[in-house]
Every structure is written in structure tokens, then in C-alpha cells.
Amino acid sequence: MKIAAIIVAAGRGLRAGGDTPKQWRPLAGHSSTYFAVQAFVRHPRVSRVVLVMNGADIAAGLWPGGFDADVVAGGETRSLSVRAGLEQVAPDYDQVLIHDAARACIMRDVIDGVIAALQSHKAAAPAVAVVDALWRGTSGHVEQTVDRTGLFRAQTPQGFDLKAILAAHRQFPEGGADDVELARLAGMDVAITPGHEDNIKITLPEDFERAERILRARDGH
């Protein structure tokens, strides 16, 4: 099976603060996108990597290159950006891994788990079980406790049969919360694979410090 990876880096990341989109802000000497692309370019099972960027970021030269990854322009929504990547790799590949550039700390074990599950499923995605108590609140007050049984925190990369997920994007152009939601709308069964607590998505300003600690600990610094 030939596997392609799509790294989605077209968002604006406003909640992370700063004047530069979060995926391009300095992180451990590089950027979140750098580490995300690196993980897939260096994976022995991934044959091609496509980086989907905002057109303005392409024009500004925010991607310094240095890796064997193709760059394509994304759309106005995450779903449209993913579809741009999918159209770029179809029909030459059998499976695709879709990953958020804001998850700089992705590790090979998580990628391996998704690829292994794709041998027997058309869709697979990593997740971490919810272990904390969950509340539903209104106006700063707890209204009720929510049963956490069977709840997971979704991560990426989310892996798919390429033809099947491209068909789902074409069928549901309005998009969804993520590619797993579109897959399920299209009737695909999605296997849950092991995620990791370190596979964080940089969302808020304090996430940069945590991601930097994780990355530097791996390098022994």
C-alpha cells in the first residue's frame, strides 16, 4: 500500500496569540509545522508529504523548505484545505494520513498505530480516553456531571482509504469537526488507535512552553 500524508497548516490560530499564525511561530528553534512535516517525511512507510498552507503564508515565504514536501494552497475552511491536499495526491496513493500542523509533538508510535489499523479498516484515528470528571456548566456554574464512559479526546493523524475519504469530502463539501466526522457521515467505520498525552495540539499561548519542553526532552536538551 502506498501512503501519503497531508499536513494541514492553513489556519490562522488566533487563540494562540501573537501576530503570526501559531503553526509558524518559533518553537524549539523551528516551528510547529517544521516538526510535524519532519515526522512524516522521515517515516519509512510514508511515500509523499503534502503541506497545505494559506495562500498568504505561501506568498510570505513562511515555509522555509528543507524537506521533501509539496506545498499546495488551502481553502477558506479546514475541510476545503484537506480536500485540496487529497485532490493533490489522488489517485496515485492507496491510503492517506491527515495531520494538524499544530501537533508538533507527534511520535512514530502513534503514526504506526494508525497505519497498522488501516490494514483491516478503511479509517483509523488516535485518541486518548477521558479520565477527568466532566461537568456541564452555564454562566460559570456547574449544572451537572457528565458520564465520561466511552469518551475520548481525538488526535491526529487520522488515517483513511484515500478513495473513500476523498469521496466523503466530495459528498459533504460543507465539512465537519474533523475528517472522522465526515468519514462517519459517509458510513465508514473508524477504528480507535492509541494516542499519547504528549501529542498535544497547540491552541493557547501556554501550549508553546509545554510543546517546547516535550521536544527538547526528546533531543536530550
Automatic annotation (TrEMBL):
Q: What's the short name of a Pfam family annotated to this entry? A: IspD
Pathway terms, separated by semicolons:
Isoprenoid biosynthesis; isopentenyl diphosphate biosynthesis via DXP pathway; isopentenyl diphosphate from 1-deoxy-D-xylulose 5-phosphate: step 2/6
Q: Write the record's keywords in alphabetical order, separated by commas.
A: Isoprene biosynthesis, Nucleotidyltransferase, Transferase
Q: Where is this site: Transition state stabilizer?
A: R15, K22
Catalytic activity field: 2-C-methyl-D-erythritol 4-phosphate + CTP + H(+) = 4-CDP-2-C-methyl-D-erythritol + diphosphate
Output the Gene Ontology terms for molecular function: 2-C-methyl-D-erythritol 4-phosphate cytidylyltransferase activity
Provide the top EC class.
transferase
The record, for NCBIfam families, names: ispD
Indicate what this protein is called per its UniProt record: 2-C-methyl-D-erythritol 4-phosphate cytidylyltransferase
Q: What organism does the record attribute this protein to?
A: Roseobacter fucihabitans
